[in-house]
Amino acid sequence: MPGRLLAFVRAPSSSPKSDHQKLDKHQKDVIPLFPPVYSVNPPPLHKASQESLVMDAFKRHSLGGRHHADKKSPKVEPQQPVRMDMLVESPPLVFYNSPQTSTGALFSGQLKLDVSEPHVTLEKFEMRLLATVTTKKPVVQHCSECSTQITEIHKWDFLKAPVSLRHGMHAYPFSHLLPGYLPATTHGSLATLDYSLSVVATTSTGDNIKYGRQIDIKRAIFPGNEKHSIRIFPPTNLTAALTLPPVIHPIGDFPIEMRLSGIVTNKNDSQTRWRLRKLNWRIEETHKFVSPACAKHTSKVGGERKGILHEDVHVIANEEVKHGWKTDFDQGNIDAEFRAACNMSLKPVCDMDSPNGMEVKHNLIIEMVVAEEWAPLKKPNQATPTGAARVLRTQFHLVLTERAGLGISWDEEQPPMYEDVPASPPTYVDDYDIAHLDDEASSLNI
Ligand SMILES: [Zn+2]
Known about the structure:
With 446 residues, the chain is mainly beta. It is built from three helices and 23 strands. The chain folds into two domains: 37-220, Immunoglobulin-like (Sandwich), CATH 2.60.40.640; 227-443, Immunoglobulin-like, CATH 2.60.40.640.
């Protein structure tokens, strides 16, 4: 894929790096699967029939839309006694804050039934909200049940008993507070998560009238306080203190402030000091997915409720900072301020973490090359490079999320409909993080 600088799937024999120690226990490649995808799980339908149901519904929708627009035409498909359309009334679906604290988003609208015959009797009229996870790394290639899992999130049953509808338009309002713990719609490099509505109306003559529609759920995590992090680089005295924004967004840049201290070591009549020669940053995006096996193929992963962990790490932005840092040998500090941003052409994907093992996370990696100089204390301006240099590499967790102002918060802009659900204020603790550098600074000559 274009722009993927680093891409790998964790193979059974690969040795995880120290910063991936969490994965050590997964080295055998087969790991237990997490709890079911969502905590609200109605009895599962037969997957194949669900899938075809959704596909049929989408096909119908794309055709139906055109027919609907052509309302003046007297031609009406004789085999379709009812046409369906949907009017979504709620604002774009944005979950605010983390899955643990989000109040969710209200989804509401009307299903419109246009009855073209004098009378139609509906036996059943149902709508399902489905979550569809599709992986590009199925346990068994070309097995659609290994590739795709469909979970019903919610079901609306519009009829308690059969109903006879007259010719004309009939509206069925619906509304539902989508729970904020649902992971957002995500199109990752290993797997995709999509939400869709699947509507089926069954007439007394046995006709199934279908309608389908994709819905997009976004998540926006409110920014809290700035994050302060410190990294030390033994065996040198160098310490990097960084100030980072609490969240970053796919579009727009963000500031990074860094102070490198401990750059000067004084001896009797001389000093050695580090000069910053090179400063690079990059943002790495890590996708993980635990590919489950379908009922037929559980033996491939060593039993039920197990899957294969895949991981893909790629760079979504990188740059060399050419200038913009100040060196103060008297204080022993280097101060750098620069701005970073995701590269939109590399299609950054927001953070997500689903109980089914789908995950997207981000790290900022800062790499510095420092070169050592020696100077007599009496003449500190007459410095001579000693030839020693080090690469300082360190990483910081970043949260990539949609901008909070992107959608309209249902609890702020909509007339109150769910008064019992309070708007939750952002709850953040100051994230102060002190850590040793895992990677040893390596020497090199420049
Ligand atoms: Zn299978």
